[in-house]
């Protein structure tokens, strides 16, 4: 299809490749936790590019399954990529103030909203930084200077207060929330499938003994793992295997967003799990930020997550858990 070997493109870098007779840009990406390319080119070439890729797969004896756009985003919860943290541009002077003035009313930052149980009057409480998300490997420290370098150096010296983890939702609690929508009376916030997010940026409280110790930021159902998963950040003293509580739904019956029906809140047990959650991404995606950040956080690729007996479901996939006590 390319007419020769694909160039060795670094993660989140772009290079040119050929698809048949067309030259396109390829972004090295991997939504599924395995190496992949995101193709960029003129819209008029879309049908040709699409058919050429499918034909090349057939010629190679490879079966490509074309999934829908909603299923596409569920891969990220397995591979550990938080795709939509709140942009940290709503406060600050200087260039940030100028940027806000430049933004149009229909921009992502202006039109976006926050959904979830965590409600704060301080917008900065929703911000995260590269060190918390494990993206610091892609900061160009060797450059003499760049916008924000001094601020990043300060954050690095202070050390990350939180770390990124995967939350595995308790299946019994999930079914309880869904079942309430088929009963009389107040219902819990509906859990949509395959992606329950109901705002561009999600922020659900993660509690330990009633105290907030983290924030869930992106949710999705994994057919591969047969469970609901979400990605977020927690305090550094939270450990893999800890069982915490996710507060699902907004307070006071829900906000006025069109994506939010009237509801009551529910606590869903979640088990802190490695990031990436999928063993394939954790063990075989060697040269990515996923494995590097996991090593930094003490979650090496060889980690084995064992479940205590009360969390081992009977006649279910081992990736799914529930509490039977």
Helix and strand run: EEEHHHHHEHHEHEEEEEEHH
Please tell me what the overall shape is: globular
User: Given the helix and strand composition, which structural class is it?
Assistant: alpha+beta
Indicate the percent of residues in helices: 10-25%
Strand order of the largest sheet: 5-9-8-7-10-11
What is the strand content? 15-25%
Give a verbal description of the structure:
With 325 residues, the protein is of the alpha+beta class. The protein folds into two domains: 53 residues, no CATH class; 217 residues, no CATH class. It is 22% helix and 22% strand. The strands form three sheets. A six-stranded antiparallel beta barrel has the order 5-9-8-7-10-11. The chain has a three-stranded antiparallel sheet with strand order 1-2-3. It has a two-stranded parallel sheet with strand order 4-6. A hairpin with a 2-residue loop joins strand 7 and strand 8. It is globular. The relative contact order is 0.14. The C terminus is likely disordered.
Question: Topology of this structure?
Answer:
Elements: E1 14-19, E2 22-29, E3 36-40, H1 46-59, H2 69-72, H3 75-79, H4 95-102, H5 108-111, E4 114-115, H6 130-133, H7 149-158, E5 162-169, H8 171-179, E6 201-202, E7 204-208, E8 211-222, E9 227-235, E10 243-248, E11 266-273, H9 279-284, H10 289-296
């Amino acid at each position: 299809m390319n007419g020769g070997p694909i160039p060795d493109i670094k993660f989140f870098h772009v290079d040119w490749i050929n698809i048949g007779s067309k030259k396109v840009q390829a972004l090295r990406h991997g939504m599924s936790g395995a190496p992949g390319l995101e193709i960029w080119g003129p819209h008029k070439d879309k049908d040709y590019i699409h058919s050429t890729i499918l034909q090349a797969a057939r010629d190679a004896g490879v079966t490509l399954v074309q999934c829908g756009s909603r299923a596409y985003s569920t891969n990220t919860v397995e591979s550990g990529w938080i795709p939509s943290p709140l942009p940290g541009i709503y406060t600050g002077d200087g260039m940030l103030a100028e940027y806000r003035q430049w933004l149009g009313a229909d921009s992502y930052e202006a039109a976006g909203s926050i959904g979830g149980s965590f409600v704060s009057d301080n917008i900065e409480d929703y911000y995260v930084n590269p060190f918390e998300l494990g993206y610091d490997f892609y900061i160009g420290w060797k450059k003499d200077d760049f916008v924000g370098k001094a601020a990043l150096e300060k954050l690095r010296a202070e050390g990350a207060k939180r770390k990124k983890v995967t939350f595995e939702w308790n299946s019994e609690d999930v079914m309880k929330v869904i079942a309430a929508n088929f009963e009389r009376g107040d219902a819990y916030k509906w859990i949509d499938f395959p992606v329950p997010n109901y705002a561009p940026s999600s922020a659900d409280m993660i509690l330990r003994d009633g105290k907030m110790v983290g924030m869930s930021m992106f949710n999705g159902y994994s057919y591969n793992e047969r469970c609901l998963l979400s990605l977020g950040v927690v305090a550094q003293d939270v450990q893999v295997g800890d069982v915490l509580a996710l507060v699902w739904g907004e307070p006071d019956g829900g906000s006025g967003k069109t994506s939010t029906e009237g509801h009551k809140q529910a606590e869903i047990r979640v088990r802190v799990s490695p990031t990436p959650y999928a063993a394939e991404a954790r063990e075989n995606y060697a040269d990515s930020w996923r494995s590097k950040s996991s090593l930094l956080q003490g979650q090496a690729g060889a980690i084995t997550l064992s479940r205590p007996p009360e969390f081992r479901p009977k006649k279910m996939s081992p990736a799914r858990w529930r509490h039977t006590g």
